[in-house]
């Protein structure tokens, strides 16, 4: 219901502007009391936001009731713009009630309420036309106009309501729902232009109801093609072209239907729909398809205009306006095509960056965790070979260490595979937990090598990524001791907070460094440690000690309190 409050404010403003228009127009026409007619309907519309059933039912009953009263008193309700026989504020309220019913109610209830509102509007249209026109032929023609125009308002309201519902249910949208969510502003704009065209045409069609229905089908069909165009631009451009050509031939001369405007003799709603079709062709279709579609639409529009004014009577103003609108449509389509391309490129770069970061993180985990255990296996196997003949018991003990290290390596591999699948496996030695001190002690306890002297002075709280990096750096440093410093007798690990910085130092006392350890060295250990520290905005250094051994020294900014030494 996050949209309820802004929708209430927006709807109140829209109804207020429509009502102000009715007041000004009707005061100017000499009967100010007519502007009071829609007030209850506007009130029901605002009530419908909180109680949709009450608001829609009350609005439908008020439309019928006020129309019965108008017929009984003989006082008709005229309009200047909108659905024939209805004030502009009433037209807006009917559309708003339809949208609210679709948005706020379940499917079955919304269908019932929309049907009730449509029936009430149809009855009101008939009663009002009987009040205004004593000639039955004229009344029937006006009722047909009112019903068709009202259908546009109802359908437009349904689209707006569905779009509001889709906005709140974005996670479960179908393709059709997503299309409506994106296209409803265009649909509403075309509906308003269709009302303008139909209203301006009504005076030319008295006694020609079937032709009016054909005209209605033409403009509605063209608008539907424009709304659906993003799914298949060329297909709907061709359908619209065929429909316009058929109407030009079958309903000629078009001047009979639309009247004559020397500067722009094309129906406004059809021109707007064709502009949208051109924009979508440029945006979504290939260059060849876009050229074919635009040529077809421009050609059929030119044929339609010639059927009205002839090739000689075509004004220069119309040609300039038509060319300008065509260029605007193509430029709009090209603009959005460029934006789509840039957005797609941004997404690709972001996905590639995320994939690269994931690969780097996986590579660091494989190196720091699995290589740590494999190094222990290699060192234990070498020790077993050296003492196997002289001390079989020591060789057996080394085999046990190899078995334990192999099990730990398998557990670490299962953890990595599980984390990649979204189901981490707990219990693998050397994996970071929320207790960094316990993790470090476990790592030292399971290390098979020189004696370790560890001093911890950790902060009270440490971000998980920082604790994980500290654990992995110590783990990799100990792995390097086992690979490169096999004659080391002692390793010193010091971790503490100094001057708002968490410092980490791992040093050994080896006198000889093996540059080619068993299994070789990929040289990625120091790289991985530096990457982890760089991600934390810290510093890293590694190199020979004085007078011997190897030192890993790292630190990163930290502003927190410390807890006691371990």
UniProtKB/TrEMBL annotation:
Identify which top EC class this enzyme belongs to: transferase
Annotated Signal transduction histidine kinase subgroup 3 dimerisation and phosphoacceptor domain residues: 358-421
Q: Where are the membrane-spanning stretches? A: 35-54, 61-79, 85-103, 110-131, 143-164, 184-202, 208-229, 236-258, 264-282, 294-312, 318-336
Against Gene3D superfamilies, the record matches this protein to:
1.20.5.1930, Histidine kinase-like ATPase, C-terminal domain
Quote the SUPFAM superfamilies the UniProt record gives: ATPase domain of HSP90 chaperone/DNA topoisomerase II/histidine kinase
- Please state every residue range assigned to the domain named Histidine kinase/HSP90-like ATPase: 469-552
E.C. no? 2.7.13.3
Entry-linked InterPro entries: HATPase_C_sf, HATPase_dom, Sensor_HK_TwoCompSys, Sig_transdc_His_kin_sub3_dim/P
* Listed CDD domains: HATPase_UhpB-NarQ-NarX-like (cd16917)
Keywords, alphabetical: ATP-binding, Kinase, Membrane, Nucleotide-binding, Phosphoprotein, Transferase, Transmembrane, Transmembrane helix, Two-component regulatory system
Q: What is this protein called?
A: histidine kinase
Q: Which organism is it from?
A: Actinokineospora terrae
């Amino acid at each position: 219901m996050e949209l309820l409050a802004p929708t209430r404010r927006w709807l109140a403003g829209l109804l207020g502007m429509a009502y102000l228009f009715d007041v000004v127009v009707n005061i100017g026409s000499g009967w100010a009391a007519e502007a009071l007619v829609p007030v209850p309907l506007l009130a029901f519309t605002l009530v419908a936001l909180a109680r949709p059933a009450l608001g829609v039912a009350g609005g439908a009953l008020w439309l019928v009731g006020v129309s019965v009263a108008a017929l009984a008193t003989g006082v008709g309700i005229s309009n200047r713009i909108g659905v024939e026989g209805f004030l502009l504020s009433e037209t807006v309220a009917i559309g708003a009630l339809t949208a609210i019913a679709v948005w706020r109610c379940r499917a079955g209830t919304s269908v019932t309420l929309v049907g009730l509102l449509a029936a009430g509007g149809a009855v009101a249209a008939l009663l009002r036309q009987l009040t205004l026109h004593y000639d039955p032929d004229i009344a029937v023609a006006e009722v047909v106009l009112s019903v068709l125009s009202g259908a546009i308002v109802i359908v437009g309201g349904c689209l707006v309501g569905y779009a509001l519902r889709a906005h709140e249910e974005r996670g479960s949208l179908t393709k059709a729902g997503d299309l409506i969510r994106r296209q409803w502003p265009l649909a509403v704009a075309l509906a308003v232009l269709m009302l303008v065209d139909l209203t301006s045409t009504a005076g030319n069609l008295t006694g020609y109801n079937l032709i009016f229905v054909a005209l209605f089908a033409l403009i509605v069909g063209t608008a539907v093609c424009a709304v659906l165009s993003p799914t298949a631009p060329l297909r709907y451009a061709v359908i619209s072209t065929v429909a316009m050509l058929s109407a030009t031939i079958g309903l000629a001369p078009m001047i009979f239907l639309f009247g004559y405007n020397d500067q722009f003799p094309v129906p406004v709603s059809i021109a707007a729909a064709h502009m949208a079709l051109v924009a979508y062709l440029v945006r979504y279709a290939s260059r060849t398809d876009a050229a074919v579609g635009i040529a077809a639409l421009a050609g059929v529009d030119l044929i339609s205009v010639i059927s009205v004014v002839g090739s000689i009577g075509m004004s220069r103003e119309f040609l300039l306006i038509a060319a300008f609108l065509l260029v605007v449509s193509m430029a709009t389509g090209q603009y959005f095509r460029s934006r789509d391309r840039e957005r797609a490129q941004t997404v690709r770069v972001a996905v590639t960056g995320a994939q690269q970061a994931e690969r780097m993180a996986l590579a660091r985990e494989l190196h720091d965790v699995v290589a740590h255990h494999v190094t222990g296996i290699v060192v234990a196997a070498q020790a077993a070979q050296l003492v196997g003949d002289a001390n079989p018991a020591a060789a057996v003990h080394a085999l046990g260490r190899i078995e334990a290290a192999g099990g730990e390596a398998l557990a670490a591999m299962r953890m990595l595979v599980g984390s990649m699948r979204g189901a981490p496996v707990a219990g693998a030695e050397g994996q970071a937990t929320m207790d960094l001190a316990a993790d470090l002690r476990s790592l030292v306890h399971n290390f098979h090598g020189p004696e370790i002297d560890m001093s911890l002075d950790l902060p009270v709280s440490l971000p998980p990524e920082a604790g994980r990096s500290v654990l992995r750096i110590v783990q990799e440093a100990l792995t390097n001791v086992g690979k490169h410093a096999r004659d080391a007798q002692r390793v010193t690990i010091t971790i503490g907070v100094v001057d708002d910085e968490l410092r980490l130092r791992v040093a050994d006392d080896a006198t000889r460094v093996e540059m080619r350890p068993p299994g070789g060295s990929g040289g990625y250990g120091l790289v991985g440690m530096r990457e982890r520290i760089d991600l934390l905005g810290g510093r890293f250094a590694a190199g020979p000690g004085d007078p011997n051994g190897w030192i890993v020294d790292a630190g990163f900014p930290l502003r927190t309190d410390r807890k006691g030494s371990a």
